Amino acid sequence: MATKIGIIGMGRIGNVHYKNLKQMSGITIEYICDIKADDTWEEKYPEAGKVVTDYHEVLESSDVEAVLICVPTNLHPSFIIDAANAGKAIFCEKPVGFNNEDILKAYKVVKDTGVVFQVGFNRRFDDSFDRIVDYRDAGNLGQPQVLKITSRDPEPPSLDYVKVSGGIFMDMTIHDFDMARFISGQEVESLHVFGNVLIEPEIKQYNDIDTAIITLKFKNGMLGVIDNSRKAVYGYDQRIELFGSEGMAHADNVLDSQTTYASKNGVVGDKPMWFFLQRYMKAYAKETKSFFEAVHGEHDVECTFEDGIRAIRLAEAAKESLKTGNEVKVKDIF
Amino acid sequence: MATKIGIIGMGRIGNVHYKNLKQMSGITIEYICDIKADDTWEEKYPEAGKVVTDYHEVLESSDVEAVLICVPTNLHPSFIIDAANAGKAIFCEKPVGFNNEDILKAYKVVKDTGVVFQVGFNRRFDDSFDRIVDYRDAGNLGQPQVLKITSRDPEPPSLDYVKVSGGIFMDMTIHDFDMARFISGQEVESLHVFGNVLIEPEIKQYNDIDTAIITLKFKNGMLGVIDNSRKAVYGYDQRIELFGSEGMAHADNVLDSQTTYASKNGVVGDKPMWFFLQRYMKAYAKETKSFFEAVHGEHDVECTFEDGIRAIRLAEAAKESLKTGNEVKVKDIF
Amino acid sequence: MATKIGIIGMGRIGNVHYKNLKQMSGITIEYICDIKADDTWEEKYPEAGKVVTDYHEVLESSDVEAVLICVPTNLHPSFIIDAANAGKAIFCEKPVGFNNEDILKAYKVVKDTGVVFQVGFNRRFDDSFDRIVDYRDAGNLGQPQVLKITSRDPEPPSLDYVKVSGGIFMDMTIHDFDMARFISGQEVESLHVFGNVLIEPEIKQYNDIDTAIITLKFKNGMLGVIDNSRKAVYGYDQRIELFGSEGMAHADNVLDSQTTYASKNGVVGDKPMWFFLQRYMKAYAKETKSFFEAVHGEHDVECTFEDGIRAIRLAEAAKESLKTGNEVKVKDIF
Amino acid sequence: MATKIGIIGMGRIGNVHYKNLKQMSGITIEYICDIKADDTWEEKYPEAGKVVTDYHEVLESSDVEAVLICVPTNLHPSFIIDAANAGKAIFCEKPVGFNNEDILKAYKVVKDTGVVFQVGFNRRFDDSFDRIVDYRDAGNLGQPQVLKITSRDPEPPSLDYVKVSGGIFMDMTIHDFDMARFISGQEVESLHVFGNVLIEPEIKQYNDIDTAIITLKFKNGMLGVIDNSRKAVYGYDQRIELFGSEGMAHADNVLDSQTTYASKNGVVGDKPMWFFLQRYMKAYAKETKSFFEAVHGEHDVECTFEDGIRAIRLAEAAKESLKTGNEVKVKDIF
Q: Which Enzyme Commission number(s) are on file for it (chains A, B, C, D) (predicted)?
């Protein structure tokens, strides 16, 4: 029998999950929920059983076994608490929240109720990045020593979005912070940031930056570096490299096609896939598939609440380092 | 309203189409049909409206608008005739038949009835190959002069399959023959074959070969070459190159991931995707999508009955060249 | 003590050898010889001991141990005979001659006198091609099955040159014929040619072509294909691939640099090195170094008179196949 | 007429220059000088006019126009002063010295005497790195924003060498510091270091490290990062990337060959060239060629004394940052 689910919040990422889930065997989208939903949505979302504007309706349905929380970040903690108290399995988009007190409250409720909880770090499900972990786990890299992550967006977000984004570290680098932990299998001890506004001067008024290099010192002694830019004209630049005593695994960009064109001006290859919806399309499908497998007890959750909080701790440390110019120790979950 | 369809023949390729179509918006799989179907199939194919063993049932349903013919090749012509006479739009797997007289009969009925007809040359829908055509059509290659196709399977088919396959040219090279026409946009005037049995000696008893190099002379004077092997240990090797007066477009293999591993033994990249179900997964979805768009009158069929017959004419010429050792002129459709 | 040598014929390739040899330890360029030499040459070639116009002077010098014959091809046989009779070790440019009777006469004198003789197939000394042979000899490829050579010049020769070149097979493909034997380690049984004039219509008046695909059937059953073009706008295209039962070795083009440029138009890499003087610069130095090692008895000649004749036999067969349209058996040395 | 030169110090790098210079047109190696030279050296260095043990002999020769100083770093300043006072053009290996007072004294004498002076930052003459600068200067990158340098040796130096090396920043990173300035065309304002001993524990007793990540803040606001390791098992890893508002130029490693091997284990490419003598062989020849062109007044020196001192200032700042854990401002020349 199919698992009945609800998607709460039908923004860009809610729609990604809708598209993937309507194609997934064994899943029935019983509800979609959005405060902006109106009469036209039933036609727009034909695979959705019911369209509602109040998420309590979803949580009150005894048919619904699991919910995907895709509302704005500041709402995550309260929605998590309500869903956990309603006994629903929860998939929550990243970051799990902005306010630390709220996050820890939500965390406590999730632990107390024992519901299945997964945070949406989709890049953990990318084939090329997973391959690095395969090499690491097989011992092919020996002792890991240096981790390098390049993460550049093809275009900066709108200033309206920047305003509510939580800043580059919480909004964009948070994925890289999670990758730093996931790819290395290690925790970060401290970090140091150099950042600047080189792309969009207007961003300064929001105390934000658009270009950053973050260096990491891991607890086991290994070192790491993340470089971020809000605008790479050639497309979404997502490369990771793990260097160790016995070798290096390097994940290069995924291109639009494998076709090159040689002319008197050189040999041109295709660009990296444009943005996250292209590059990580398959990873998004895999992360929700994995979530439902965890809901069905087939394996542990691959991306836990703790992972969600630790990434936030890294973002907080980065913010402080940018402000003070100093190396900053990364805090623990509590 | 959804288009209702039937899939006739649920072998390997019928299942590929089933999987794609059940995820396609606007399509309802009203019937699946296979002579081997039994009571367990309704559970096995939950998205199929009805499971039947006699394809006449499918054709007689007035709900069904289109059928996919995925039965063994020798049955294609008669199934095409019946489906056309029933007024169904037809998607037929390649090759359209073995016996020339039967093929032409089926062709006539399709023309007379005027039903939409598409042949299953899935590679026309591969992103990397399409990119070559884009470069050609944009004039970036100037006057095309040389076409090169490398097409190697990862493992030879079973001898049982070889027996009924129609031979390497009809079974395997037929895709490359279609690609030769599609990528160049030109017709082949004559061809010459060198072939041998280098992989599986047993294949000889069926008058077949497993390794071939076919050279092509196009009507417009350009030249081409196809090299085939039934066994590339490193995986499915599918590369195409179109060389012209102003440049060359080259489609390389699609790999399992973009991750490399550098060690003291060299720098290892991932292998080409294993076989056609991996490499062309997306192309299979695109070809049926394109078929239904043609059914709905959104554009012309991208892969016509004529294309199906011309590829067969090339396969027939190749067979003759292998036998006689001579250059052989390629026959017209009739 | 340095080996004293003479270079006979100071055209393009004579100058290449001059440049390499003046830098080679243990070599003294005692003579350069060219019928066009005049008083200005002593300044132009400061490292040359003497500049002469008559090659007999070089051969008569008892100091000279070895000569490099770089005169036009039609003169090769008589110069070889004179040099062999003078007891000089001989390095002769490819092809060893045009007229078969003359070639065999020269061959006999070389055998009778027992002088060291090397023919100038420089590509045997290219690092990337040698690497294919390494893989083959190490057994990494298993049983070789298919050989593929792409060989395209960046620009066609002048019509003046075409006139005396001996035709594309004797002038250009001869290198590829030698590579076919060298890379495979096998002899060719027969071949078939498709050729055309697609680049320079004027070439037709000399009964020559500018585009060709030559397929090869080897004595051990393996197959091969060479594709030639006189004009690749993106530069000198020199790729070789040897495919076998256990793997494939593929030598790609050598580029001007390893630097790519990613912009909104794609990712551009550098072009292949422009032409043979760039791509094979290092190979030219290695071939003469190897020759002098053979002169000093350090190893056998790596590229023999027999190799020179066999390549010519392949060129002759290609000419015939182009004329008749038939598969042609390759003749033995005698 | 040939320029007469002397090479002072015949260690590893002195021998590299000897080998290049003996092949260079217009150069006569009048002297080689080394305190360890003995009677056997005349045979060992046949192209050297005279072999001496006291460098004053070289400086006193009125024939000698230029000297290459290849002695241990601590001797550089006094040798520079003597050579400048003798009116010789000077090519001095990097770094120009260890002791700041001595360096500035030498700098003053060079300026006062006006002799031509070049420091041996060979990487400025690498084709792939130069290509990045070409793209930058052509405006293809727009406004440079992020510079990334990966620089890893294939094996750590001996502990004996580590002892006198001046530490990783002065010995190894100094090249990368120069590259940071050369590739960006900008000066560094401040830097921050994370470093550790992850490869050779014994190195700790010399207060040195073997793994480092250095982040750079440039005066114009752009950011940079250098990552160093003393041991990459796959060979010398030398990559540079300059990212800007309009594109990115990326110089990848130069490989031993362009040949790949595809087997059932993946597709293996050749490794990066083993170490600096392989990778930068051509760059070493180009840097001395450029020096002699500057000596002959054909162009300005491409790598000045100031460049040598600025790289040292960066190394000094890195040392301090490693010690204090803080961001450190880079000092000016004086």
A: 1.1.1.18
> What CATH number is associated with residue A16?
3.40.50.720
Backbone dihedral region for residue B221 (phi beyond 0: left; psi -120 to 50: alpha; all else: beta): left
D182 within domain boundaries:
yes
Same domain, D174 and D76: no
Confidence band (pLDDT; 50, 70, 90) for B24?
Answer: confident
Q: Do B225 and B216 form a contact (C-beta atoms < 8 A)?
A: yes
Task: With CA atoms as reference, report the closest residue to D50 among D25, D33, D66.
Answer: D33
Residue C150: give the domain boundaries.
Answer: 123-275+302-329
User: DSSP per residue over A186-243, as a string?
Assistant: S-EEEEEEEEE--S-GGGGGGT--SEEEEEEEETTS-EEEEEEES--TT--EEEEEEE
Residues A321, A192: Cα–Cα separation, whole Å? 6
> Pick from C234, C255, C264: which is nearest to A234 by CB?
C264
CA distance C145 to C153: 27
Given a contact cutoff of 8 angstroms between Cβ atoms, the answer to whether D78 and D72 are in contact is: no
In one-letter notation, the amino acid at residue D98 is F
Nearest CA in chain C to A265: C234
The reply to whether residue C259 touches residue D270, judged by beta carbons under 8 angstroms, is: no
Mean residue pLDDT across chain D:
96
Q: How confident is residue C47, by pLDDT bands cut at 50, 70 and 90?
A: confident
pLDDT at D34 over 90: yes
Q: At residue D1, does pLDDT exceed 70? A: no
Q: Is residue C282 included in any domain, yes or no?
A: no
CATH of the domain at B264: 3.30.360.10
- Given a cut of 90, whether residue D170 has pLDDT beyond it is yes
Domain identity same for C77 and C43: yes
Same domain, C101 and C220: no
What is the pLDDT at residue C23? 80
Token reading at A16: 């990604």
C264 to chain A: closest CA residue: A234
pLDDT in tens, C120-148: 999 999 999 999 999 999 999 999 999 99
Cβ neighbours of A72 (radius 10 Å)? 12
Write out chain A residues lying below 8 Å of D152, CB-based. 243
Residue A173, SS3 per DSSP: helix
- Do D257 and D312 reside in the same domain of the chain? yes
In a domain, A279, yes or no: no
**B308 CA to chain A: closest CA distance, Å?**
26
Over residues C171-189, the pLDDT tens digits come to 999 999 999 999 999 999 9
A259 touching B (Cβ < 8 Å)? yes
Side by side, which strands form the sheet with D89-92? D50-52, D27-33, D3-8, D66-69, D89-92, D117-119
| Number of independent structural domains in chain C | 2
Same domain, A93 and A149: no
Contact yes or no for B266 and D267 at CB 8 A? no
Q: What is the pLDDT of residues A209-260, one digit of tens each?
A: 999 999 999 999 999 999 999 999 999 999 999 999 999 999 999 999 999 9
Integer Cα distance of C154 and B48 in angstroms: 58
Could you tell me if A129 and A237 lie in one domain?
Answer: yes
- For residue D270, give both structure tokens: 């050749």
Per the DSSP assignment, residues forming a β-bridge with D117 are D90
Boundary of a domain, candidates C115, C140, C174: C115
Spell out the residues 6+ positions from residue B75 whose beta carbon is closer than 8 angstroms to its own. Answer: none
Q: Give the separation between CA A80 and CA A106, rounded to whole angstroms.
A: 6
C244, amino acid identity: G
ipTM: 0.94
Residue D176 shares a structural domain with residue D313: yes
Of C56, C87, C115, the domain-final residue: C115
pLDDT of C62-112, one tens digit each? 999 999 999 999 999 999 999 999 999 999 999 999 999 999 999 999 999
- D231 and D317 housed in the same domain: yes
Q: Please give the average per-residue pLDDT across C309-328, as a whole number.
A: 97
Contact C233 A268 (CB under 8 A): no
